Amino acid sequence: MTDQSSGANNPFAYETLTEYFESQGLLSNAAEIHGILTGMIAGGASIEGQDWLLLLSDLVNEGQSFNPQLRERCTELAHSICASLRDPDLGFHLLLPSDNESLYERLTGLINWVQSYLVGFGINQTNLAGLSEDLREAIEDMVEIAKLDFEIEDEEEAERAYFEIVEYLRVSAMLCFGELGQASGGACKTNKTLH
């Protein structure tokens, strides 16, 4: 899958999904929901059955269950995340505001994504002691990134830092999935769709 953050015809484009989630009355934007789902999947959560959807609705819909259309859209998004995390060409991308948006908007989206990723990850993985040193360090870095309070003084430098952080998070999510998500018994299926 190509970059998920752009493309008007892409059902998983940031703007398209954020508008859709708003129309469904959700308080979370696309970056937050994508972050939670990525954290859950990379951390080894199963997206078989309905349990993960109930968990997601608790987190983003004040415990109200999703209507069938919203359930299907979230299921499609979860399967898209699985497919991109499994992509041998490293096709996974964070779902963030497009590069046309202001740096402030993109940084806000980035912080939302990483905070949500940590929530999703923490659902299944509360003990970091069993993780590899690389993954433990990546999660600790994510915690620090999630706390960032950014002030943009040098636009060019901030822009460069933004892209470096996005790439670091992208690689860290794939590392996490490689270590935990794939080892969770194949719960992340890419050829199954709920109807």
Automatic annotation (TrEMBL):
It holds the Pfam family UPF0149. One of its GO terms (cellular component) is cytosol. SUPFAM superfamilies: YgfB-like. Belongs to the UPF0149 family. This is YecA family protein. The lineage of its organism: Bacteria, Pseudomonadati, Pseudomonadota, Gammaproteobacteria, Alteromonadales.
